[in-house]
Design brief:
Layout lengths: L22 H14 E3 L7 H5 L5 E5 L5 H9 L4 E5 L3 H14 L4 E5 L2 H8 L5 E7 L17 H10 E11 L2 H12 L4 E3 L14 H8 L5 E7 L3
Parallel strand pairs: 1-4, 2-3, 2-5, 3-4, 5-6
Antiparallel strand pairs: 6-8, 7-8
Helix pairs in contact: 1-4
Length: 228
């Protein structure tokens, strides 16, 4: 799953990645988008209005087909969860599952990640942010396109509440080392472990299975926002 693997780019301009929709996904988008999906021009001033309740807010950036976000919603019904994604088959799939599993604590923000984080969330308001398997951009000349960069991580940290968590995962070792260096360099983020973290509580994703099939390990990182 991962944001740029789902067609997002680290830019203020974007196009919606449509992909090939199944009949069920198309129906879910048609019937449920009005209730669960927001775009960048319709971000609520207060997220509890979108959920109909006040609750701690968690965000997954680039949820792909939504498997990890759905599991999080089931495991943490006390949280309001926002998934950020552009890939329409993924949005259609998660909408189908929201209805099938009767999950009312998920809303979808159909927007590019940087724009969504910058304009969609006030500083110090997020309990947790998750980014699992963002596009690794493995070629050296493309690595500047990677989502996890100092300015973006600083923006994420600003939006975390004190004590809030930032969880990351990748199946590319050099990207994992890059993530570790970027996050460790930000004083307001405290590494919850000595280096990389034990595997996060998340379902095994398509990208993780594919990566392991290619002989890749998976690296998890966990950081906590400090006071100040």
């Amino acid at each position: 799953m991962g944001l740029q693997r789902a067609g997002m780019h680290n830019s203020s301009k974007y196009v919606r990645r449509r992909g090939r929709l199944t009949r069920g996904q198309s129906r879910a988008l048609r019937e449920l988008s009005g209730r669960y999906v927001l775009d960048s021009e319709a971000i609520p001033a207060h997220w509890h209005a979108a959920f109909g309740r006040a609750a701690p807010l968690g965000v997954e950036i680039g949820f792909g087909m939504g498997h990890a976000l759905l599991a999080w919603a089931r495991e943490a019904p006390h949280l309001n969860l926002v998934g950020i994604e552009l890939y329409e088959p993924g949005i259609g799939h998660i909408l189908r599952e929201i209805r099938a599993q009767v999950l009312e604590n998920i809303r979808i923000l159909q927007a590019e990640a940087t724009q969504a984080v910058e304009t969609g969330f006030e500083r110090g308001t997020l309990a947790e942010i998750r980014i699992f398997f963002p596009d690794p951009w493995p070629k050296q000349k493309h690595r500047k396109r990677r989502l996890i960069q100092p300015a973006f991580v600083e923006m994420l940290a600003e939006r975390l509440a004190p004590g809030g968590l930032l969880l990351l995962a990748t199946d590319w070792e050099d990207y994992a080392k890059h993530m570790l260096a970027v996050c460790d360099a930000l004083e307001v983020l405290e590494n919850c472990h000595d280096g990389f973290a034990p595997r996060a509580m998340r379902p095994t994703t398509h990208f993780e299975v594919r990566g392991r099939g290619r002989g890749h390990d998976v690296w998890d990182l966990a950081y906590r926002r400090q006071n100040g």
